[in-house]
Specification:
InterPro entries: EF-hand-dom_pair, EF_Hand_1_Ca_BS, EF_hand_dom. GO terms for molecular function: calcium ion binding. There is one protein chain. The chain is mainly alpha-helical and 90 residues long. The chain starts with a helix and ends with a helix. Strands 1-2 form a two-stranded antiparallel sheet. The chain has 6 helices and 2 strands, in the order ααβααβαα. It has one domain: EF-hand (Recoverin, domain 1). Helices cover 62% and strands 7% of the residues. The structure holds calcium ion (2 copies).
Length: 90
């Protein structure tokens, strides 16, 4: 991942990270999950983060999609926030 992209993603996550209460994460997830099937797909990410390039959306997917099935469940989403230090290395 390039430094610039890393920066872009860090800013994105920081902006989403003002308040990490569980309910907030859950409602954010539900906001992203437009069709309400309990999974966030790459298309839903692109839809939600319109300011991100396609490549960056794929990076977001890779960060959140912990089991690699190209969709993000609520569990994956919440656990990624808990393990933020995994991907956000100084
Ligand atoms: Ca969905
Ligand atoms: Ca997954």
């Amino acid at each position: 991942m390039s430094d610039r992209k890393q920066e872009e993603l860090s800013q994105l996550f920081d902006s989403m990270d003002k308040d990490r209460k569980q309910e907030e994460l859950h409602s954010l997830f539900e906001e992203m999950d437009k069709d309400g099937d309990g999974k966030v797909t790459i298309d839903e990410i692109k839809n939600h983060f319109k300011e991100l390039s396609d490549n960056s959306c794929q990076d977001v997917m890779d960060i959140w999609d912990r089991d690699g099935d190209q969709s993000i469940t609520k569990e994956e989403f919440v656990s990624t926030f808990k393990n933020k230090s995994d991907w956000q290395k100084k």
